[in-house]
Amino acid sequence: MHLLLSLLIFLPSISYSQTAICTNGFTLVNNKCLKLFTEPATRKDASKTCGKYGGTLATIKTSQDNSDVVTIVANTKRRVWIGLYCLMNDPPTCFWDNDRVSVAKYNNFAPNFPYVEIGRCVTFKTDGKLAGKWLNVECEEDLRPFVCEIPSTFEDDCALNYNGYCYIPSEGEAIGFDNARRSCQAVCADLISLHSDNEVRFIESYYESSNVSSIQIGGRAAPSKYYKWVDQSEFDFNNYDRLAGVHGDCLFLALSTDGKLSKGSWYGDNCLESRSFMCKLKIGTQCDGTNTTTPATVDPVKLQSVNCKYQWTS
User: Secretion signal: which residues (predicted)?
Assistant: First the structure.
């Protein structure tokens, strides 16, 4: 039985640029991609908006980073949310959203701040004598503009371009892990490996308006029973849901929350399950379409070649 999928691929040789760029209207400032959102929001809603782009509220770890945010908010008259949260009135107890690192090495708090009695969240002053300084505010009652940050990438015609990789979703389900992987390998990609909360949010955002509840990802149990990424990348991030109540040798990413599964978490299941899937390809990879190495367990998945803007070769 043949399964017809479309990975929306376009294979002719097109050059790509190694110059760093930003996507989705973000501005490249010293190799960081920043964007000011002027519609006021609570801290929580602002963070959710950033997450839809695979990013976080702005992170400031050096004086240059601070200057970059000053540049982005230059025409704003209100304080803006940044991705910092304080536990106590001491800078080492204030942590960035993106990596939970404290501001012990660098901070630009205004005098007498942090001051959590006002609020645990932190804003960036945009004008006046305190322009560029950080001040605490209450997290949920205040509505403020905000600055999001996403990783830079490289210029490419890829429709889902994130952090130096092209992401290719299937338009249907593959019968089992091996057949999903063969479909990816046919365009010199592999099933996605996941390396950060932000990458997971980026993928969740793509499927947000779909009816897909979970997708096959590129994790498979080794003989030692530890999961590994089949693309050979480091297993440096783990969001496995041990309470899911389902177990198997192949990993799946939950895209919704139900009685057993939590959105954004991974769970193990039977490798022969039929699922939608997503492939991941490093931008600039040279591809002639002959990279399939995984044997098929059923007839290979057919790929429909259509005229779109995915780019595969350097």
Answer: 1-19
11 with 96, same domain?
A: no
Give the CA dihedral 65, 67, 73, 76, nearest 10 degrees: 140
For residue range 204-232, list pLDDT tens digits in order: 999 999 999 999 999 999 876 789 999 99
Tell me the chain's radius of gyration from C-alpha atoms: 22
Helices (DSSP H) in 59-170: which residue ranges? 63-72
What is the DSSP-derived secondary structure letter of residue 19?
A: S
Residues 6+ apart with CB under 8 A from 56: 47, 50, 83, 96, 97, 98, 148, 149, 198
Q: How many residues in the chain?
A: 314
Residues 201 and 229 in one domain: yes
Q: What is the largest CA-CA distance in the chain?
A: 71
Nearest to 268 by CA among 243, 251, 245, 244: 251
3-state SS assignment for residue 271: coil
Best CA proximity match to 219, nearest among 291, 263, 269, 160:
269
Count: domains in the chain: 2
